[in-house]
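Summary for the steering committee. One of the milestones for this cycle was to obtain a three-dimensional model of the protein with zinc ion bound, which we needed before selecting residues for the alanine scan. The sequence and ligand used are listed below.
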Amino acid sequence: MSSGSARPADELRAYLEMLAGGARAGQFFNLRWLTPAGRMRQQFRSARQIRRTAERIETLAETTDVFIGVALRDRRRGGKVAISGSRLLYLDCDDERARDQLAAFAYLPTMEVASGTPDHLHPYWCLDRRVSAVQVESANRRLAVALGADPACVDVARILRPPGTLNRKDERPRAVRLLAYRPDARYSLAELLAELPNDPRPLARTGRSSRRRAPRTALELQLLAIPAAEYVRVLTGREPNLAGKVLCPFHEETDPSLQLYPDGTFYCYGRHSKDRACRKGGTIFDFAAAQWGLGTRGRDFNELCERLASIFHVRVTSRS
Ligand SMILES: [Zn+2]
């Protein structure tokens, strides 16, 4: 069902009802908004007070960018520590190919929200029951890999733009809209996951850089198959801890936030500062490019490939 013609206020109400579905007493919406000075502020509202929360968001949205934590918080804290689980899975499809793959996916999202950033679409899948935070992140990640969406958008503490607000990132504000709403689309986690690769297998489709072109050359595929723990160890000298994390080389931190995945991708859950999340993630190419100050396209990409091939002793016998 498309609800593109609904009033923004109705879209916001429907969206909040989906987020609050099955809320228990003592659970909270986590609202965040930007101050004129560019700082992020936050507030907690009972997940049972949908009307009042919607009114608050509408008031804030008149002057600024508003975000909301997709997972309800179990206490008045914004981060992961306050989240024990959720009934929602979600992605950020940030290019045309991801959207095409989404359209071909057997399980239609319960909601699709256009975030106001051109080409960005946020699909949400509502589960028939609450699952743990770990299960949410794992499922989001498998969805991202399968659908070629942004692998950085899997964090259970993720905040996204609610429909009925304005995205003011560019000079001309754009409406955040609810493009589709299928209230009856509810899935069991097992059912949904059965459609997805067990391991994040299709490496060439992982990571933001993969949309650059297709297909990958033999050399690129060999480089992409190197586990993140291995290339991070070689390129930074840092050993992953038992949880598979290292200190992020892209900012100062005392607790490791850079998660390394066996499928060759990485993602940083850390922060540059109180108000700025790191969110660096991707493949060996993204990591090496950031380390060496190179881009991931054109000549820079060729240089990346050559340097990585030499460091990791990957030989190419024929052009492909
Ligand atoms: Zn980081």
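Key point for the committee: Residues 199-213 have pLDDT under 50 and may be disordered.
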